[in-house]
Design goal:
It contains three helices and 22 strands. By secondary structure, it is an alpha+beta fold. It folds into two domains: 2-120, no CATH class; 143-342, no CATH class. It starts with a strand and ends with a strand.
Length: 343
């Protein structure tokens, strides 16, 4: 059984569950085939026949896995990354439990305890990405993207977030671990332009999340030519960039960092993505129970001039709303009422 999805938290059942697949990792049906095609449907059916959910028999707090108590806890070499990890395509063996069937899937309710020794690493971690076979040409330009998974600094001395509460680390210790893991990953990417997703939308001042991330990153780079700057946005169109500026109105946003030694920032573009606004939904007393608004996150698309040539490059960094977001569908031709349904 191969790990097809590492732990995710089921808020309804209050359990962390993992998904295994027989003999191989389950690919999304649309990875290779057109959505809705016969091939995609066949892939979906084959996935369901191979799939097994693994979870605890009793509820647990978010982040707590009763049958794997050491998961994500150790960091012996203090490099910001745990030794008790799980990777997609790992083989899991020696686990015991009770088989059940619910919500259309087979489930193993674990009664034993496991550790990292229960996993075979079919695709071991590498110190840096395995790229093209030919040697890396320093004259080339490397562009990458990275999701920092709710990197929030406002609870830890950063500038205030005007668009929502903290979605990141719940305490300073967790934040320091999160930050170090992000920094080590970015260093190993060794990219000249990096698009960031899920960074806190708390401006471009000295205490903004993106400024802090870049400062910490540069502190770990010895060669000055390899250091980074970040793209700032004058959202107020007043010619002055400060901590109140933002990209969009969500608590998180997209960002771009780059090496001035490789490219020169020429223009900053913010593209407003389409959004849906429907009529309000009222209860029998006329009270608004749904405001009818469904937003998208804006796209940050800076244009650079590549140094050593005349070429320009525009990098568009998107972070679309999750598939769990809802859409509006009209219930009555009068358009006075609407209801929400899954997209």
């Amino acid at each position: 059984m191969r790990v097809s999805r590492t732990f995710g938290y089921d808020y309804s059942a209050r359990r962390n569950n993992m998904v295994l697949a027989h003999e191989r990792v389950n690919l999304h049906p649309n990875q290779k085939y057109v959505a809705g095609s016969d091939e995609a449907k066949a892939q979906s059916e084959d996935n369901s026949l191979r799939r097994l959910f693994v979870e605890s028999p009793t509820p647990a707090a978010n982040g707590v896995v009763p049958y794997y108590p050491e998961f994500g806890r150790s960091d012996v070499d203090q490099d910001g990354s745990t030794e008790d990890y799980i990777r997609i395509n790992d083989t899991l063996f020696g686990i015991e439990g009770v088989i059940g069937y619910s919500y259309g899937d087979y489930r193993l309710y674990v009664t034993s305890t496991i550790s990292k020794d229960n996993f075979v690493r079919n695709t071991p971690r590498t110190e840096q990405p395995n790229l093209a076979e030919q040697p890396w040409n320093k004259k080339d330009l490397r562009v990458a993207t990275f999701n920092v998974l709710n990197y929030f600094t406002s609870p830890f001395g950063g500038d205030e977030n005007r668009f929502g509460s903290n979605r990141g680390a719940s305490n300073l210790g967790e934040f320091e671990v999160q930050q170090e893991k992000i920094l080590q990953a970015l260093l190993r990417l060794d990219a000249d332009i990096i698009g960031l997703m899920e960074i806190e939308n708390n401006g471009f001042g000295d205490n903004g999340a993106i400024a802090q991330l870049v400062n910490e990153l540069n502190a770990r780079v010895d060669n000055r030519k390899q250091r980074y700057e970040f793209v700032s946005v004058d959202s107020n169109q007043d010619g002055v960039i400060d901590a109140l500026d933002a990209v969009g109105t969500d608590a998180i946003t997209t960002g771009v960092i780059y090496r001035p030694s490789k490219v020169k920032l020429k223009q900053v573009n913010v593209i407003e993505m389409p959004r849906q606004v429907a009529p309000e939904v009222l209860d029998d007393d006329g009270k608004v129970i749904e405001d009818g608004k469904n937003y998208q996150r804006n796209t940050l698309a800076p244009t650079f001039k590549v140094k050593g040539g005349k070429e320009k490059l525009t990098v568009a960094v998107n972070h679309f709303k999750s598939k769990g977001s809802k859409c509006w569908k009209m219930r009555h031709p009068s358009r006075r009422w609407a209801r929400r349904s899954r997209c």
